[in-house]
Amino acid sequence: MADMQYRRCGKSGVLLPEISLGLWHNFGGGADTETCRAMIAKAMELGICHFDLADNYGPPPGSAEECFGRLLKNDFAARRDEMFISTKAGHLMWPGPYGDWGSRKHLLAGLDQSLRRLQLDYVDVFYSHRPDPNTPLEETIGALVHAVRSGKALYAGLSKYPPSQFNRACEMLREEKVPCLLHQFRYNLLDRACEKAQLPDVEEQQTGSIVFSPLAQGMLTGKYLNGMPTVSRAADESSVFLDANKVEADAVRVAEYQKIATEAGMSLTQLALRWLLRRDEITSVLIGARTVEQLEQCASASGQEALPDDVLAAIDAVQA
Ligand SMILES: NC(=O)c1ccc[n+]([C@@H]2O[C@H](COP(=O)([O-])OP(=O)(O)OC[C@H]3O[C@@H](n4cnc5c(N)ncnc54)[C@H](OP(=O)(O)O)[C@@H]3O)[C@@H](O)[C@H]2O)c1
Predict the structure, then answer these.
(1) Which residue, 285, 315, 281, is CA-closest to 303?
(2) Would the pTM count as exceeding 0.90?
(3) What number does CATH give the domain 6-221+268-308?
């Protein structure tokens, strides 16, 4: 396996691994602690030093941060400075008018709760998890600035911002001398919308970018092409963003990509990840993993040769 490669996050001093590990799934209340510990240990061994969390990851919400916080304290405390840890606030966390969205009240209380669950004094990045149509952007951005100035976060990040708000938010952050470190959004072979939306702005604003669901939650491994595996995200009733209907809707395109991968002599997982890494504006590809083996397979996409032009052309020919 090639060594993990690192890319600079925009114009900042931060390098991120080409493959980062997200804890949206597989680290919640029902997760096996030994498997979680083994995945974090393997990630560090492979050079995957960036761990992406959010307050609502689980299920139940908060449990992924609790799991990671316990492991960090018990097994990896001495390695804190080798790790780059992010969290986010902005999705529903607690009842009442302050438990959701992008107010200063919600974001700063959310960050404090995250730090308690993570058993940390600070995170490396604190994100606004999503734009809030009903809160002035100035207020949301002011909360990120406060989080950094108070020392509870080293950098500020934005997640899922549409272009106009992303550009304004970056300007506001720059004026406060707390530049946006990176933008987080979805990008994979089945969803190329960001090529016209977020990616041009990331380059314009000179921020980093980290792209999530690179395997379309597992569909782009080809695992659903021969039926529904019993142990898989789509078969798991607690995972509400992927089910049999979604798998079926994308099956034809996945099969076409599988054929391209087979002809190119690689797995579909490799094709999907290496295709994302072709773009210099992408700082890191943010995967999820259920097992150490999945993590290893994903990590091996870093440091590979560029995909040949005929493979890229075949991918572009697949109808959206
Ligand atoms: N900002 C946001 O709003 C937002 C939204 C979504 C995600 N994210 C971040 O992005 C991270 C990654 O998202 P994601 O989990 O959707 O990423 P993904 O990499 O597209 O999907 C991960 C899932 O694919 C399957 N998989 C991964 N590697 C595999 C392999 N080698 N062979 C077979 N199956 C494999 C596993 O599912 P099964 O084995 O369970 O089938 C795994 O849990 C999240 O953890 C989170 O940090 C952020």
Answers:
(1) 285
(2) yes
(3) 3.20.20.100
